[in-house]
Amino acid sequence: MSSGPSDSTAAEVPPRFGPFVRLRSALAVAAPAMLALIGWPVITFGGLQAIRLVTNIILSHLLNPAIFGVLLILNTLRTGIELLSDVGVGQNIISHPAGSTPRFTSTAWTIQIIRGVLIGAVLATCSPLIAHIYAEPILAKAVPMMALLVVISGFQSTGLFVLMREQRLAQFSAFELLPALAAMVIQVTISYFDRTVWSLLYGAVICMAMQVGCSFFMTPSAGLRLAIDRDHARSIIHFGKWIFLSSAIFFIAGNFDRLYLSSAIPWALLGVYGIARSLSEAFTVLLARVGNMVLFPIIAGSSHRGEALRHRLSAQRVPLLATAAVGLALFIALSDRLVFLLYDQRYHEAAAILPVLAAGVWFSMLATLGEAVSLGIGRPQIGTLANAAKLAWMMAGMPLLAARFGFPGLVACIAAADLVKYLALSLGQKRWGLAFPVQDLALTGFFVVCVLVLRALFSLSGVVGAVGGLWALFQ
């Protein structure tokens, strides 16, 4: 009996092409399943970014850039103190065998509330000192408002993490989108009548209270009560010690630019930089969502380790990162034109900053996926050390490059920071057989080609300027 077509085709493949055939076969199996899984995170991300962008554009026409500078500092302080006290409540619920039980979620919820109250108290107490450090009197009254926001957020239902654990992503997406849409209406309405920083703060507090209420109606919150189970609390704190250190270094590394720039450049320019950074971070946020909502829960609950996990991840990364590369390249190619179209003249300096920051986002995306994998195999220290390398680069590089090249040097240093982080992360993951240097080098080359080709095509059609316009900041 003669062999079938598939057998004869396989027999004709030269041995040296075997790895490529196996990769193609793995992609054919893994890509559809992976894309199906990331569908909801991508849809939610798109909706949230659209809401965020519309809100940002409307508010930029209502408020002056200095207000965005103040808000950037307030959000940085809030995020910082939250991360500096992070004990990994969500990660525990997702990865612990008893994570979805009422006793465990109640313990996690109680710890979360206590943490929120303590953070709020620290922020409110330190508000005069913060105002003195930044030489901005309005912070003395604005920081306590942020403290109230933190306290309210601590009451949010831990049922959200149960949804992620059980991969009920459609329900989780509905929770995120509906309150965000309502928040946009609230923020814009208040800012229309009161065009000061207080409109943003009052709106944020109202929106957070609404979000907390929704978290109990739209998530599995049954059985939540104020209670502490000692064994579960001990488990949360034990796992959370690396999360705490990782979060602390992650915050300082991720926000050192804001903290440094706040004392190095005018508030108005800081607000313009904040607009550019906010736009550039969109793709990193998307990959972080996919990593936290899909990869981390899957790896944490999987029995695959070592070579088996490497093969599985290798096939899943390619379609995900190739798609991200095309999307980011398209964004960079049109980035300066987008700024000119969406923002008024006060913010046009962001057009020169945005392409540079967005180029660095490529390595941020590679690193973000790597961190999700490290967390999934129970090795958060790999990400911690990688963020420490990024922080060391920025602490040493920003003052030196600022003295030599001024503001363009600062932006270049910030853009290169995630390359340093990625290299450190790859070095740490190599020990566990989970580094993909060849694959990432090929994808990086693909990304660069996409940027240049797309920019040249748009330039020829008259949509944007010359290819050299992407590095106008350095001209």
Give the distance, in angstroms, between the N- and C-terminal Cα atoms. 71 Å
Helix content: over 70%
Question: Order of helices and strands, N to C?
Answer: HHHHHHHHHHHHHHHHH
- Tell me the number of helical segments per DSSP (H or I, 4 or more residues long): 17
Please state the average pLDDT score: 78
Structural class: mainly alpha
Flag low-confidence runs: 1-13, 15-24, 26-37
Biggest beta sheet attributes: none
Radius of gyration, whole Å: 23 Å
Please provide the count of β strands.
0
Sheet-strand content, in percent, reads under 5%
Overall spatial form = globular
Produce the secondary structure layout:
Elements: H1 5-12, H2 18-62, H3 65-83, H4 89-95, H5 102-134, H6 139-153, H7 159-165, H8 169-193, H9 197-217, H10 230-261, H11 267-280, H12 282-300, H13 307-342, H14 350-376, H15 380-405, H16 407-430, H17 437-460
Helix pairs in contact: 2-8, 2-12, 2-13, 3-6, 3-10, 3-11, 4-5, 4-7, 5-6, 6-9, 8-9, 10-15, 11-14, 12-14, 13-14, 13-17, 14-15, 14-16, 15-16
Q: Can you tell me about this structure?
A:
The structure is a single chain. By secondary structure, this protein is mainly α. The protein has 17 helices and no strands. It has helices at residues 5-12, 18-62, 65-83, 89-95, 102-134, 139-153, 159-165, 169-193, 197-217, 230-261, 267-280, 282-300, 307-342, 350-376, 380-405, 407-430, 437-460. The longest helix is centred in the N-terminal third of the chain and has 45 residues, at 18-62.
